[in-house]
Amino acid sequence: MMGRFGFLVSLLLTASLNVQLCLGQSSTPTVYKDSKTGITFDTWIVPDKRTGASGTASTWGGMTFGVALPQNALTTDATEFIGYLQCPSNSTTLTGWCGISLAGPMTNSLLLMAYPYQNQVLTSFRYATGYDNPEVYTGDAKLTQISSTVNSTSYSVIFRCQNCLSWNQGGATGHASTSAGSLVLGWCNAFPSPGNPSCPDKVSIVQHDNGQSIFGAALDSNAANPSYSQWAAKATATVTGNCGGTTSTPTTTPTAAPTGVPVPSGTYDYIVVGAGAGGIPIADKLSEAGKKVLLIEKGPPSSGRWGGTLGPDWVKGTNLTRFDVPGLCNEIWEDSAGISCTDTDQMAGCVLGGGTAINAGLWWKPYTLDWDYNFPTGWKSTDMAGATSRVFSRIPGTDTPSKDGLRYLQQGFDVISGGLASAGWKNVTANSVPDQKNHTFSHTPFMFSNGERGGPMATYLVTANARSNFKLWTGTAVKRVIRTGGHITGVEVEAYRNGGYVGVVNVTATTGRVILSAGAFGSAKVLMRSGIGPQDQLEVVKSSTDGPTMISNSSWIKLPVGYNLDDHVNTDTVITHPSVVFYDFYEAYDDPNITDVNLYLNKRSGILAQAAPNIGPMFFDEIKGADGIVRQIEWTARVEGSGGVDNGNAMTMSQYLGRGAVSRGRMTITKALSTVVSTVPYLQDKNDVAAVIQGIKNLQAALKNVKNLTWQLPPANTTVEDFVNNMVVSYSNRRANHWIGTSKLGTDDGRSGGTAVVDVNTQVYGTDNLFVVDASIFPGHVTTNPSAYIVIASERAAERILALAPPKALAQFAQCGGTGYTGSFQCAAPYTCQYQNDYYWQVPCRYVMLMRIAAKSTKIATAKNADESVDTVRD
Ligand SMILES: Cc1cc2nc3c(=O)[nH]c(=O)nc-3n(C[C@H](O)[C@H](O)[C@H](O)COP(=O)(O)OP(=O)(O)OC[C@H]3O[C@@H](n4cnc5c(N)ncnc54)[C@H](O)[C@@H]3O)c2cc1C
Ligand code: HEM
Ligand SMILES: *[C@@H]1O[C@H](CO)[C@@H](O)[C@H](O)[C@H]1NC(C)=O
Ligand SMILES: *[C@@H]1O[C@H](CO)[C@@H](O)[C@H](O)[C@H]1NC(C)=O
Ligand SMILES: *[C@@H]1O[C@H](CO)[C@@H](O)[C@H](O)[C@H]1NC(C)=O
């Protein structure tokens, strides 16, 4: 799970503005005329908590952003604007910084940060490819100031922003369109001042702690103005701060490249790439079968068990880190730097354990229909039964995570479950009756054990690591696989952290295999960088820094990698009830309740043994669409406000639309070699939308007799239709972090127009020893949070891969490739499989071809058998 706890956006309450009731996702501007310059802006106001505004879409001190646009901007896309940015400082010495995202989300967008310094307001353009510290923007955006004000409570700046409505960071591009009549914008705010403040492009910052959100911004006729050019001419001040004599021409702050260690010698029967939900179990199973296995993880250790060290002061001196304590799991949303992946625009853990190190630990025994509906023969629920029982015998999970067997702060659970029960929904123990997912509710099952996170890192990785034929590398990222045609000989690695390995590590000659388990974005990226994917994406890789060393396009394997992207669509609803009791898990990090800490450290009991932010009940609904498809809904209730409703008595109930949804998105790669969700997989289909609406109505009906319960979102005076239709559809606010599907498993070979990237053995089409085993292979979404399903799929894949005949080299004259070819791609020495044409794209294993190509290059390979091979020329 889950959505972004605490900061999910509902446009309706953002900035307490009126919302236009159309799908334009817009919020009405307030016109502001600056008295000094006469410039008129459309502005949007983030409400000030100190003046009574509540909730997470507000900020201490309030914040305003506005734009003035060229006269024709509402019909022709503008390339520049005049901006007004006013941000709070709550200290007598000015502190803080604030930021605007010109596309809404933090990632993939031009970011502008501003902060007060010595009576000036300094600014810096930034860009983030992941949920980590943004880099300095290297494109040609230009900011000149018209005026600025700085006083004890606030700082503001009016500026001309040229080339600010489209952006390009090392080839990753995007834009905002003024002719669309509305913008989607994002804001963030921070209390502490930047470190090293004199030079804006060199400041050091930590994650914003005074709120962030996205909002729709309607542009009305006041936004575009005939006086624009006169106003723009006032922008004469270039305010650079002091950057040591030079002007602040944007240059990427060179983050020192990690120092790597050359790959040690040795080959492996299996190289598994990525130690998350998919990678850890399969590495264990293969090593259990006696294979020599190398598991390569990009990130650093997370859990204390594996040498991780991060955590609050109160875990220092114990064997625990922030990753081990269930009550600290949502810290990822407040402090993600160095933990989240920097090369994908979605939240993902790039640490040992992957998602299983940073997630909330929800752990579901699969609903058999999920396999039967989504997967082909060989992966039906009956096929998965063995794997399921193996996984649940190793990681049984629990719905009473506190070791004393008690459940803490259950008031919210009781309110909602009481309402559901009296409306006839059935109370079940979810993992005892996994197929009861229609009008049922339950306590939340977690993978936790012994009051700690547990999961694959505490089970499968422990047994694997005890074997001498298993090796784990951390801090090492796989760049690509090395291959000749469809046969992989090894992987190229680089250091992601200091001490990581650099170079090429090979698999055992002839029989070795490579398994990609780098996650729905990570595995797709490795495939694309290895010349496996859609033509347009391989061309992007070709145009990147990878280009010169990328495998030649005659060897590209064209598969629909990145298509079929899916995630649960998240729609947040909020109620308040006087008996709900909130617990501040974020505060437990820095300023914990000592009794709670002692109960946890001494007995692994109490509220901190429960996942933040007090998750439950979980409940389920099935809705049949007009298209005849039954769509599955999972609801997660948690004790927390969101979408503008304060913590306290609030519960957020997140609706996840899963199995049966037909909308799909697409993940693509940028020239900067980061991955992006270029098409969101949410609500493109009207029956998907209808299910979301019906699900909320069903819930409202079920809770209607709960005394003192107040619906906040949707508010009582808003129809569910309007609520759903007016909510922004962005990955920022609608994601569930359950990304799947980018290397779909199936029988319809993607090389010949099908949709599948891997076959029923998880083997990549067009290769003889490359596999994908992680969330990527799921054809469609499941009912619940998916990690247990992914671990089960990994167990199942191990069975199937171990049952395959070992790869073998072909004799001379055998076919070793070609469109639709499914056999071996390797030839017995000294022959090499060679390309001939696309249809017959590899000619028979013949030494002659090797010699012929070699002869063209300056260095001729071994001349042994040259005469003989020349004799065999037939074409
Ligand atoms: C914040 C959050 C909360 C979640 N909560 C839950 C929940 O409560 N319950 C649930 O069931 N699911 C939850 N999920 C989803 C679940 O964690 C993921 O679906 C699951 O972990 C995906 O498994 P995976 O093996 O595909 O990828 P991951 O678990 O992400 O593992 C991929 C691994 O590969 C590594 N990697 C990537 N690229 C490379 C490379 N080039 N070289 C080497 N290594 C690489 C990564 O560092 C990572 O460790 C949550 C997800 C998030 C982000
Ligand atoms: C150390 C630096 C930073 C870190 C680690 C960080 C991390 C994050 C995280 C985890 C979120 C929450 C995602 C969510 O709401 O779902 C977020 C949201 C956001 N951030 Fe940052 N951030 C940083 C700096 C910045 C800067 C400098 C800006 C702008 C100048 C910015 C703009 C935003 C915006 C607008 C959002 C809300 C949109 C969204 O939800 O994606 N961030 N950030
Ligand atoms: C600003 O105010 C907030 C909320 O009152 C407080 O938590 C924070 O510490 C203050 N910061 C500074 C720098 O004064
Ligand atoms: C500081 O500036 C803000 C915005 O310009 C203004 O609203 C506020 O009144 C000023 N405060 C003081 C103390 O001058
Ligand atoms: C910490 O130590 C306890 C007690 O020995 C053990 O049960 C637990 O598994 C350990 N946890 C980690 C994360 O190492």
Would you give an account of this structure?
By secondary structure, this protein is an alpha+beta fold. It has 17 helices and 36 strands. Helix content is 17%, strand content 23%. It has a 7-stranded mixed β-sheet, with helices on one face. The protein has a 6-stranded antiparallel β-sheet with strand order 1-2-3-4-10-9. A 6-stranded antiparallel β-sheet has the order 8-7-6-5-13-14, with no helix packed on it. The radius of gyration is 28 Å and the shape is globular. Bound molecules: flavin-adenine dinucleotide, protoporphyrin IX containing FE and 2-acetamido-2-deoxy-beta-D-glucopyranose (3 copies).
Layout: helices, strands, pairs:
Blueprint: E1 30-33, E2 40-46, E3 63-68, E4 80-88, E5 97-101, E6 110-117, E7 120-127, E8 135-136, E9 142-150, E10 154-162, E11 166-169, E12 172-175, E13 182-190, E14 212-218, H1 228-232, E15 261-262, E16 270-273, H2 279-288, E17 293-296, H3 355-358, H4 368-374, H5 381-394, H6 411-422, E18 426-427, E19 440-442, H7 460-465, E20 470-473, E21 476-484, E22 487-495, E23 501-506, E24 513-516, H8 519-529, E25 532-533, H9 535-542, E26 557-558, E27 569-576, H10 587-590, H11 594-603, E28 615-624, E29 630-638, E30 650-657, E31 666-669, E32 675-679, H12 686-702, E33 710-713, H13 720-725, H14 731-734, E34 770-772, H15 787-803, E35 834-835, E36 842-843, H16 847-856, H17 866-871
Parallel strand pairs: 15-23, 16-17, 16-24, 17-20, 18-19, 24-34, 25-26
Antiparallel strand pairs: 1-2, 2-3, 3-4, 4-10, 5-6, 5-13, 6-7, 7-8, 9-10, 11-12, 13-14, 19-28, 21-22, 22-23, 27-30, 27-33, 28-29, 29-30, 31-32, 35-36
The site of one 2-acetamido-2-deoxy-beta-D-glucopyranose has 8 residues, from loops.
